Amino acid sequence: MKWSVLACNGMDKAEGALAREIGMQVAEAAEAEIVCPVLLNRAAKRYQDVLASTALVVIDGCGTRCASKLATQMTVKPAHKVLVSDQVKTSGISLETWLRLGPAELAFAENVKDQVVSTLTAETEARAAPAAAEIAWEPPADYLMVPYDQFEFRVPRVGYLFNENDLWVRVRGSRGRVGISDYLQQSLTDIYYFDAPELGSGVEQFGELGAVESSKAVFEIVAPVSGTVVSTNEALIEKPELINEDPYGEGWLVEVELSGWPDEAEFLLDGQAYSETLTGKAAEGGAAGKG
Amino acid sequence: MPDKTFMGVAREMIPWAPTIDYQKCDFCMECDEFCPHRVFEHRNGDVKLVVANPTNCVVFCRACAKTCGPDAITFPDKAETVKFIKSLRCGQGQQT
Description:
The complex is a heterodimer of chains A (291) and B (96). Chain A has 291 residues and is α+β, with helices and mostly antiparallel strands. Chain A folds into two domains: 126 residues, Rossmann fold, CATH 3.40.50; 143 residues, CATH 2.40.50.100. Chain A contains ten helices and 15 strands. In chain A, helix 1 packs across helix 6.
């Protein structure tokens, strides 16, 4: 698989300078094509062929996420994303506001580059490998329909439990599959990226289980259950729109080996109870707002 | 039961809302433009944005912070908040 890199070149923040450095290092190590954000914005045709024939890595400097927004504007879906300000926070490195990178910043950039390249290598291998045998998760048999204004929100009548942040879980044995509700996907509108959690990482109930991004928002996935991430939906790398098209089926996000089940069910709502919260949510957030 | 609840607990009992670091905030208003719950309000003067309606904030939502370029918005610790909500539920006979 061939990669391309679109990195923030922000010259008003240290994170921007770091994003540019990481972008260059990733491009060198992964033999990826560099997509200059300024030129892309000015002359998109220059990159038409590159973007059509490669998987795009987007490296944002800060939460303004200019590079991501530019990719969205060009209707390109990123295959992998990095937010440098988050990486800085996690690492504990203290950044000077001065834009020139010192030895500590360069070492940090190299670390991030190594992580990204290792993820890209794993993704390339995963795409080449045959799919493992999976549990058969049949689609919902029956939905409750919640009308609101010109919208209608579907909620599976049985088999799905919800937290109040609009995430569902369904359970088979010790395995839980997690996704977002129809209400949430309609509120976020077109989802262009699922930032999946790391395989093998642990999560507590109501902890963070990755994020989904649309042109409207970066929405944190609030875990409905505790456990260890054992699988993420790889189909979403190429087709994140499955989350909008089939939120209770093909658009699932993550599978977790459960560690707090069944006690944690006490903090979740069944289909009926969840459907009763939706009219209020839609009225308060505006059906076009988020939950 | 109160008007607004979260996990069966009255919303006003749950201390979950954004805090703005005015040393970092550049009043770009991206957070306010994004949040549909009217948590923020504009003000005249030096401090142009305040957290006016903290209980409108959706518990565990941190989406406004993710829109913030200068990283000026923080939230309470999530695990501590979960623990606190669970303790309140125990105290009120685990209503759901």
